[in-house]
Amino acid sequence: MRNFLLLICFTFLFVGCAEDKALSMNGKTVYAEAYGVFNEQAKKREDVVYQISPGSVLLSIVGFETIIIPFYIVGYDLYEPVRMKSENID
Fold first, then answer.
1. pTM for the whole structure
2. pLDDT for 28-75, tens place per residue?
3. Is there a contact between 37 and 78 (Cβ–Cβ < 8 Å)?
4. H or E stretch including 69?
5. CA distances to 12, 24, 78, 81, 89 from 55, in Å
6. Helix H or strand E segment including 6
7. Please, what is the Cα angle at 77 between 74 and 78, to 5 degrees?
8. In whole angstroms, what is the distance from residue 46 CA to residue 32 CA?
9. b or e along 10-26 (b: 16 or more beta carbons within 10 Å of the residue's beta carbon)?
10. Which of 48, 54, 57, 78 satisfies CB 3.0 to 4.6 Å to 36 for a cystine?
């Protein structure tokens, strides 16, 4: 049991939820915020590429018994900004 608790504590040291980022391309700097299912319309930017945050998924799985933790993370903090979209690639 003690080893299991140490493993959980160690995991939380390296896991975080999605983070907001300041991205730049061609001299244009954009502040992009993380978003989830509930606030996608308000926070998602069309000129930014997003990915699912592995830390958010892990915290949702670990905290599934509370119902509140996964509800908040999936609703408001699931996707994190990665980079600006470029016209040639995306």
1. 0.73
2. 888 999 999 999 999 999 989 999 998 888 888 887 887 887 888 888
3. yes
4. helix 68-76
5. 9, 24, 9, 14, 27
6. helix 2-14
7. 55
8. 10
9. eeeeeeebbeeeebeee
10. 78
